[in-house]
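User: Can you predict the 3D structure for this chain?
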Amino acid sequence: MAVNVEDDDVPLILTLDESRGHVSAPEEPPSENGGSYDLINDVPSPAAGDCYPQRSYVRDNWEMNYQEAAIYLQEGENNDKFVTHPKDAKALAAYLFVHNHLFYLMELTTALLLLLLSLCEAPAVPMLRLGIYIHATLELLALAIVVFELSMKMRWLGFHTYIRHKRTMVKTCVLLLQFIEAIVVLVRQTSHVRITRALRCIFLVDCRYCGAVRRNLRQIFQSLPPFIDILLLLLFFMVIFAILGFYLFSLNKSDPYFNTLENSLVNLFVLLTTANFPDVMMPSYSKNSWSCVFFIVYLSIELYFIMNLLLAVVFDTFNDIEKMKFKSLLLHKRTAIQHAYRLLVSKQRPSGISFKQFDGLMRFYKPRMSSRDRYLTFKALNQSNTPLVSLKDMHNFYEVVGLKWKAKKNREHWFDDLPRTAFLIFKGINILVNSRTFQYTMYTLVAVNGLWILVETFMLRDGIFPRDVPWSYIVFLTIYGVEVLLKITGLGPIEYLSSGWNFFDFSVTLFAFLGLLALAFDMEPFYFIVVLRPLQLLRLFKLKKRYRNVLDTMFELLPRMARYCE
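Assistant: Here is the predicted structure, written as structure tokens:
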């Protein structure tokens, strides 16, 4: 019995040739069809004897299409140019090797080793200094690993694309320079002054885990031209005022700030920071009070106008660069999705991607994603509620694929499955801690605690602190502890700690209790306790929405600022 091949969905775009041995090798950048592939216009129905080889051929084509589409999506996510797309089987193997977490760790480890070698090379920390042969050999070993990394990238990119990649060529030049210096050190058996060691950070910046650093550096370099323009304007006015100040005040022998043109320029530069003001003005002002006009005009132009203009230009340039980057990234991702979409549609269903093809794509794009998550991702993408995902739906791929899925329990509270008596007790505690009366009672107690702290502080004399903890602190701390226990019991630990304010209350209360325990062992944590006492007053800012928004914004920005510092 003959089986029709069309039952298995023939790909619209073939990535295998008739020999089924190699990926097609386009010489040009990928076209609008996602690459230099053959569009299938017709597939003849196979005879009974050729059915299974034909089905195997179609299945192999689908597997290659899945992998090809996953690579396009990864290039869109990583902002890799499509000209670097692997063009043959060897380039594909090198691409998969380079885009591997073990390869990323090897890059990071090698870069850190090269940086840490600076501690062992002369001049170095005496206790960490290594012999010349040891640190030079380690350096050559690390550089050899970098050579291997670059050779794999060259095999993936190809020679012509490799030499046109600016960052990779900079890394190659630094590598060559480091190799020559390491060999010279081995031959001379002594370490000379190696200024080029400062270039080793390039290896770290180029690794996969420093993508945010590279992005920020790129934005800084792109914003330099307008910054330099305003900086030249600032220096121009500084030179003009330095010449004018020299001619106006150099006749005053008691004025050491403008006796030469060099001193005029240096002192006006310092005046830009107001570090020498009003000292720089006093000699001339004591002789003629109208000389203050010179300094007022200078500070008005340089400090209050051009410096603020410089800040505005930097901010505006960064903002424009950020918008352009966002637009280019969005268009790049859209293009990657279009390439992947053309590889996933079939001849039988060219209007969309079925779950079978989407599941095959995700096996290569996110191998660790479970079958349940792949199905839920497909359903989240499918906004039209049809069996197929359209190209419009696929445009949301990167947003949807980043979602985390977890089973939602039908229980409203953590104590729903407990016996009825225990359930009623915990339900009553839950109602209590969620009531506005309980919340405002705690706010009142916090305010009373704050006033009490203020009165106790005024009553202290001559900076003499009592060695014993005040009884009021123990009372209020006990109340805070009971509040924490009630909230954890009524809300459950997970729901309680999911709130930032609750986590803050829990941390302050816990550390205060630890301070009291330490006091019992004569560890003198008095200042530690004094610092913690006013922190409870921050809870009062929850009462007003404006204050709450300010604090929430601050807590929201802190992790982002930490990411930029990495």
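The two ends are 64 Å apart (CA to CA). Confidence is low (pLDDT under 50) at residues 1-8, 17-49.
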